[in-house]
Design brief:
heterodimer, A: alpha/beta, 6-stranded mixed sheet, 6 strands, globular, B: alpha+beta, Beta-Lactamase, 7-stranded mixed sheet, 6-stranded antiparallel sheet, 17 helices, FUZ/MON1/HPS1_longin_1 (chain B), FUZ/MON1/HPS1_longin_2 (chain B)
């Protein structure tokens, strides 16, 4: 593998509407939080540069719309993702139950090469709302374990709890997927003159 | 050969009469009804708003296209674009501002925001249309606020120091001022190449571009005539006819032209005023250049294996070739003519040079090319493998790119000729045939291990050339200055470009006043480009184009055997122009074997 200074990772954030995907991203990228809710329409794109284990990484974060009516761009958005972040709201049981569907949806649409080992990270957001909590940490963790030991983090976009750590894990998980196969054997591809079609008709005089 | 030459000559003669007749008819003020092939427009500066309208005179910030609405959509399979206003965008403006705010914040270097919002394209065609339109507007609007704020911070710099100005903002500002951008990304939305600015800058934009393209692509026409989105897997099985493709749109003064070559997307953003057709053609060349470094089969295989594949690692070190090609796109007639230039030389010298190369050629050599002054002096190829001009231009680009690599001795590089064979590499042995005069010899083999053979072959050619009388003739050709129109003594003729259709070669004289000034040179280039696009317009192709302005009279003439673009004195009468064109064609005919390589060296 050629040594490139910077690695680019495409990270997709998925989850039900209102679980705090955009807030998490804003907290992570801009260190800002707003209580106001605004639905994401289609998707937002943000970038963040991080250093992971001495490697410079550009994270291209695709914040998608949770609302179903904005899902028309799904296929294109999922294509070529390096990591997928599933977010739910710890105060809304439904959003937790949806994780399964979001994960399946991603695997079907993105059809990654090795679905068993594709890196997911699960974030249980809004842990600052302790009184309204409906999903326990244990319940979330056991679901993640079941799905092949998906890393799980309890976050609060509002109080910036664990946001940095979570995204660092995301970057690391994606980096581990880097292909180790030797792609340079392709350079041996030589033109077989016997295979070259006779282009007499459409070629030019010279 | 002689009989066909005679035939060609006869055809020319009839066409000359045709030209004469048409121009004469015109000059007598007769209408050419029923002659859709001719388009003559000489009402001077003002024009009548028709096809002949030309803005090229007013420097380069005047778009050549007619005034159009701010956002223009053009899709291969354009569907209904009802403008029914869906209430989709209530609070978008606020969010955009928030992003811009974040941009300028302390994290501006590390983070940049960009939004793309497209609505519910749940299969309804009309709706998709309006959503797409909105998305485009979002894109252009999403750009401008960011752009303006940074740009103004630059201009105000002279008055007061802006403390919050960041390197990123500076970069952004200079990026925005460029006339032409070329961005290449993968269909996953990952940036691969950008002509201006850093890759970091286009990371979020690449996402937006990908969203725009896929939004159109995923809405396709079903056999029953309805439209809807389909899963990725099925998309791959769709035929081109079923797929919609985003081709271009216009936002403000910028044209956004797309070239979808899945798994790669290429985008040109241009305010140069060039026709969409030419911008697209230029993207094709950039794509070919990319393939020449990577091969199509590698790209397809790699992206098939990993849809998140990062092609950038494959391009490292090759940027200078791509950059050189891009810089030439707007200055070299070759690209819009799809033709290459030969170095004018005594035909017998050219023949002998070709014969000498053929004499020393080993069976491993497939193609041989001698290049002097950046023009082809000799070409050897197997009889059954004609070369497309596009591939020849790629080879010329290799040796025209300023690089020290060629000074140190022999260069051995893989080079895919995509129009010849896009699935594999040829291997090019590049050396000087004569270093002081900058004459290059390219020997191409399909065998990766043929370096030694080609190297020996090259040495034999060099020493054999040095011993022969031929060298003097070759050097004379390289040292000779380009021919000048003024020496031809053709009344009122100032400059011309002539494309020889049969060989895909063109010839052009040296620039003389007033066109020797850089600004005028550029203007002349745009003028020819414009005439070419007018003549080859899909909806209304024209064989003959004539127009006079305050600066000059320009003529374009396309026949089966040649294309001629020429400028004359502004006051030249049509009679003079007609006579001059005839005289010019006569001269070209007489000099044909010197100006063009009419028969390449063929091997079996």
């Amino acid at each position: 593998m050629a040594t490139r200074k910077k690695v680019l990772l495409k990270v997709i954030i998925l989850g039900d509407s209102g679980v705090g995907k955009t807030s998490l991203m804003n907290q992570y990228v801009n260190r800002k939080f707003s209580n106001q809710y605004k639905a994401t329409i289609g998707a937002d794109f943000l970038t963040k540069e991080v250093t992971v284990d001495d490697r410079l990484v550009t994270m291209q974060i695709w914040d998608t719309a949770g609302q179903e009516r904005f899902q028309s761009l799904g296929v294109a958005f999922y294509r070529g993702a390096d990591c997928c972040v599933l977010v739910f709201d710890v105060t809304v049981p439904r959003s937790f139950e949806s994780l399964e569907a979001w994960r399946d949806e991603f695997l079907i649409q993105a059809s990654p090469r090795d679905p068993e080992h594709f890196p997911f990270v699960v974030l249980g957001n809004k842990v600052d709302l302790k009184d309204n909590r409906a999903i326990t940490e244990n319940r979330a963790k056991s679901w993640c374990d079941e799905k092949g030991n998906i890393p799980y983090f309890e976050t609060s976009a509002k109080e910036a709890t664990k946001v940095e750590t979570a995204f660092l894990t995301i970057a690391r998980a994606a980096l581990q997927q880097e292909k180790d196969e030797d792609i340079y054997h392709d350079f041996k591809d030589a033109v077989n003159l016997d295979d070259v079609p006779d282009k007499k008709q459409d070629g030019c005089g010279c | 050969m002689s009989s066909s030459q005679q035939e060609q000559h006869l055809a020319d003669a009839t066409e000359l009469e045709e030209l004469e007749r048409r121009l004469t008819l015109e000059s007598e003020g007769l209408d050419l009804d029923g002659e859709p092939g001719a388009h003559v427009d000489d009402d001077g500066e003002g024009g009548n708003g028709g096809d002949g309208e030309l803005g090229g005179e007013d420097e380069d910030d005047n778009p050549l296209e007619l005034s159009k609405p701010d956002v223009v959509f053009h899709m291969e399979d354009s569907f209904n674009q009802h403008d029914d206003d869906e209430d989709m965008d209530d609070d978008d403006a606020g969010e955009n501002d928030a992003m811009t705010e974040g941009d300028r914040g302390e994290d501006a270097r590390a983070s940049r925001g960009n939004s793309f919002r497209a609505g519910e394209g749940e299969g309804k065609r009309s709706r998709a249309g309006s959503n797409v339109r909105r998305a485009y507007e979002e894109l252009s609007q999403g750009r401008s606020p960011t752009v303006r704020s940074h740009a103004s911070s630059i201009t105000s710099r002279h008055d007061t120091e802006e403390p919050q100005r960041t390197d990123a903002a500076l970069e952004e500002a200079s990026w925005v001022e460029e006339d032409k951008h070329i961005i290449i990304l993968s269909d996953a939305g990952k940036p691969i190449y950008t002509r201006h600015g850093s890759e970091d800058m286009i990371v979020t934009r690449a996402g937006v571009i990908q969203a725009l393209i896929s939004f159109i692509e995923e809405n396709y026409r079903r056999p029953d005539g309805t439209h809807g989105s389909v899963p990725f897997r099925q998309q791959k099985e769709m035929t081109e006819d079923e797929r919609d493709e985003l081709m271009w749109f216009k936002a403000g003064e910028f044209y956004f032209v797309f070239l979808v070559r899945s798994p790669l997307y290429l985008l040109m953003v241009s305010k140069t005023g060039e026709a969409v057709k030419h911008l697209k053609q230029q993207l094709e060349y950039v794509y070919s250049q990319l393939l020449s470094i990577t091969t199509l089969s590698h790209i397809q295989r790699a992206f098939h294996r990993w849809s998140n594949y990062d092609l950038r690692c494959h391009l490292a070190g090759m940027e200078k070739f791509t950059e050189h090609l891009i810089d030439r796109l707007q200055a070299d007639y070759a690209f819009f003519l799809n033709a290459y230039q030969c170095l004018p030389m005594d035909p017998s010298v050219r023949d002998k040079l070709g014969a000498l190369i053929q004499q020393h050629k080993q069976k491993e050599v497939v193609f041989a090319l001698v290049v002097g002054n950046g023009k082809v002096m000799s070409l050897m190829r197997p009889r059954r493998f004609p070369l497309k001009p596009q591939d020849i231009l790629l080879m010329l680009n290799v040796v025209q790119t300023p690089t020290r690599s060629f000074d140190v001795g022999e260069t051995w590089m893989p080079l895919c000729l995509p129009h010849f064979n896009s699935s594999g590499f040829m291997h090019a042995h590049v050396t000087y045939l004569h270093e002081e005069e900058g004459i290059f010899l390219l020997l191409l083999s399909n065998k990766q291990d043929a370096f030694k053979t080609l190297s020996t072959c090259r040495n034999e050619i060099v020493s054999s050339l040095a011993d022969s009388k031929l060298l003097a003739g070759v050097l004379r050709a390289v040292r000779a200055e380009s021919f000048r129109v003024s020496t031809l003594k053709i009344p009122d003729l100032r400059h011309f470009v002539y494309k020889h259709i049969k060989t895909n070669q063109f010839t052009v004289p040296a620039l003389e006043p007033p066109y020797s000034e850089p600004d005028e040179e550029r203007r002349l280039f745009c003028l020819y480009q414009h005439v070419e696009s007018q003549m080859h317009a899909n909806n209304r192709p024209v064989k003959l184009f004539f127009r006079s302005s305050l600066q000059e009279a320009v003529l374009g003439w396309a026949t089966a055997t040649f294309e001629l673009y020429a400028v004359f004195d502004a006051l030249a009468t049509k009679q003079t122009v007609t006579a001059s064109v005839l005289a010019l064609l006569k001269w070209i005919k007489k000099s044909e074997t010197r100006l063009f390589m009419t028969s390449p060296q063929l091997t079996s």
